[in-house]
Amino acid sequence: MPNSDALTTLRGVGPEMAKKLETMGLERIEDVLEHVPFRYENYNSGTVTTAVHGDLVKWSGTVQAEPLVRYYSKGKNRLQFRLLLEERYVVHVTMFNRAFYKDKLALGATVTVKGKWDMNRMTISATDLEFGELADGLQPIYSLRAGLTQKNFSRIVKLAFDQTTTFEDRLPESIRLRYRLEDRASMLRGMHFPDSIDMYKQARRSYVYEECLLYQLKLQAFRKMERSGKGRALTLEKTQLNEFVRRLAFPLTGAQTRVIREIVSDIEKPERMNRLLQGDVGSGKTVVAAIALYATVNAGYQGALMVPTEILAEQHVASLEQLFEPYGIRVALLTSSVKGKARATLLEAIKAGDVDIIVGTHALIQGPVEFSRLHLAITDEQHRFGVEQRKMLRDKADLADVLYMTATPIPRTLAISAFGEMDVSTIDEMPAGRKPIETYWAKTDQIDRVHTMVERELSLGRQAYVIAPLIEESDT
Ligand code: ADP
Ligand code: MG
């Protein structure tokens, strides 16, 4: 049986700690065991004579002289002491703002420090200090939320292991034997506390195998379910559809025409469409979506377009309104800024079928919106979503066709394995006259060149944008 005990049953895990763990989706002991490190630090366990300048080292030794502390302004301080390594070499250790260690670093005490090796000064700039001998192996680094330290979490993992007596293997023994995979207990132990790189590699091999196999099984189950799912065949007005396409501001590329044929033929079939549309940024996926939406609405049904951000939703609404206005097709924007009475009226209109196309973020449209006759759900940048979300969307849009658009290039073979239950259409051609996009990778020490380039573009009246990763979910 997996260990489904609550984390608070672990010694030293109180309600407050449990709450922090819960924000990471960890509620039961088995969840903690499943939360494996995302990388490991491999400290140079070499010796003073083999380490080179700048190496990250983790060494143990004995304290040689009473530590000195210097205090600076604003409560900052620096701790320094001498450490005897390998019973022969005396090196210096400096640590900032750890004055509190001073009294604990008794002469002759054994400590392990971890930090950067300055060979010229024979000094370790330490970031971490532990009392006692160096523990062997790789240091696991977990992905954690604010308020949890690596040390804390490692301790919780150890407790979780101590309190788990049986591990349930997910893979049948026949497969484990055939592919020389580890049982679950050794696999998880090897992931959390590898004594050596070899031990880690063995564990990881089993871990990856299990993950891939389960993913594939899930996809196949999903696909099987799909196949049995009923759809609805729409009758499309081909003359009107061709006319709509002819009136666009530009002729379609060959690739666009080809994928539209694939999509239109799906819409006409009684099976549900489940298609991934991939094409680079600027390859013209939006107009393909618009044509599919037009065909759907013209056949008497509603369409929904889901995008990752509200800004994108607003942009899409603006361009779709312009495109559809001459045809009397009604487009509505559903974002979290649509509130109160306006929202109630809009939801009512969607339910009554007074709105033909709804554009909004995924969360909104997957939420408590009722459609009167939704037939086509299109989602943009689908690569951000997993199998569960895809299933959720399909459950929402009963009988409806679903089209997922993405600009993330996925090699065909990978697309089939990651999106195994879907058909794939690819726009592999850019509209004529496009300048090719050039991509560069600048390293940190080239930041001045990047700034100069941005300045130059701005002075020419052009624009630039900077994307920064969002480390933790936040409303602001
Ligand atoms: P994507 O969503 O694939 O990144 P868009 O659909 O936003 O790309 O298209 C990018 C731009 O190219 C838009 O301004 C669109 O109007 C234009 N465009 C799309 N298809 C064509 C085409 N066949 N010929 C000329 N311009 C096109
Ligand atoms: Mg796009």
3D architecture notes:
The structure is a single chain. The protein has helices at residues 15-23, 29-34, 150-162, 173-178, 184-192, 197-228, 238-246, 254-268, 285-298, 310-324, 340-352, 362-366, 387-396, 412-418, 447-459; strands at 39-41, 56-63, 68-71, 77-85, 89-96, 110-118, 123-131, 139-141, 274-279, 302-307, 331-334, 357-361, 374-380, 401-406, 423-427. The chain is of the alpha/beta class and 476 residues long. Among the domains are: 45-135, Nucleic acid-binding proteins (OB fold (Dihydrolipoamide Acetyltransferase, E2P)), CATH 2.40.50; 238-427, Rossmann fold. The protein has a 7-stranded parallel sheet, with helices on both faces. Strands 2-4-5-7-6 form a 5-stranded mixed beta barrel. A two-stranded antiparallel ribbon has the order 1-8. Strand 11 (331-334), helix 11 (340-352) and strand 12 (357-361) form a beta-alpha-beta unit. Helix 5 packs across helix 6 (197-228) and helix 8 packs parallel to helix 9 (285-298). The longest helix is centred in the middle third of the chain and has 32 residues, at 197-228. It is elongated and about 90 Å long. The mean pLDDT is 87. Bound molecules: adenosine-5'-diphosphate (ADP) and magnesium ion (MG). Adenosine-5'-diphosphate binds next to helix 9. Adenosine-5'-diphosphate binds at residues 250, 252-253, 256, 279, 281-287, 407, 431.
